[in-house]
């Protein structure tokens, strides 16, 4: 269900003093291509979506934040001067953003807020980054001068994850939520922070996520293991990250590294070039090449990086059978969604087939999520 201003305002009025404040929003995101490249100094290619987080906020003249989560029907109060903060994760995001904005010199004061989201849970669309970006933008607007650059606001969200949530994330999710622009995807250089908008208005195509609603329990630290593999290969080659490697350099050290490390590096180097190929194809309106590269990415994530799972590979095979232009895992892997570039004429057939075949095999239907590329963090009213 689409979140509306009325939904948030009604709850804000009910839980606070009957007056209204200002309403802000920030989106979740998709990533067309460029997976597991951020910590290798490469490129990612995200876009903001229409689903996201929305919050009504009103200064209350104290040093206390009074927050109500509409979705979870949960309430908390905390002091801006308390270094520990609330224990519940959904409130710690807000606390962390407050503290990080204060560290930037923004004179944050106490406020009342009610917030909610319509980002599908478990779909890998970064509801947490949307919440962080929403509050960072709002606090800058309410208590600062409203001129803090958006990359700084994105870094506030990233620092919140690192310091207050314990998630050592990259910058892509918060970047996309802050910088999103309707009908545009963005190529972000994760090493330099430079980015470029690419128009995304494909005629005759739709982007659709198919959420497997699966998240496999993982033993050990699979993400850290893969990161360590990449770092070992980079060291063997003599470069800082695999961003600076190429096929010849990888082959030159093949006998010095394990087969597993070789496969991990093979995927990452290939993904670097695939992102650039997709950018070039988009500038030409060549969506067939975009789709081909998406399939290549899935193959690499499945066979070389080994972060897929049976259910996601099954959805990818259904996409091929339905003549979908492009399909791949979106996100870290081991569950979640595939992202699919589908010709409009094939959309209905693909969705119906995916739901029917997946249910027949696994006993439950996947969730279809239509993607519309929207704007980044903003004030609504």
Automatic annotation (TrEMBL):
GO molecular function: galactokinase activity
Keywords from the UniProt entry: ATP-binding, Carbohydrate metabolism, Galactose metabolism, Kinase, Nucleotide-binding, Transferase
Name listed for the protein in its UniProt record: Galactokinase
Keyword Nucleotidyltransferase: no
UniProt similarity note: Belongs to the GHMP kinase family. GalK subfamily.
Enzyme's top EC category: transferase
EC number: 2.7.1.6
Domain Galactokinase N-terminal: 11-59
Organism: Xylanibacter muris
Domain named GHMP kinase C-terminal: residues: 280-342
Domain GHMP kinase N-terminal: 93-181
NADP recorded as keyword: no
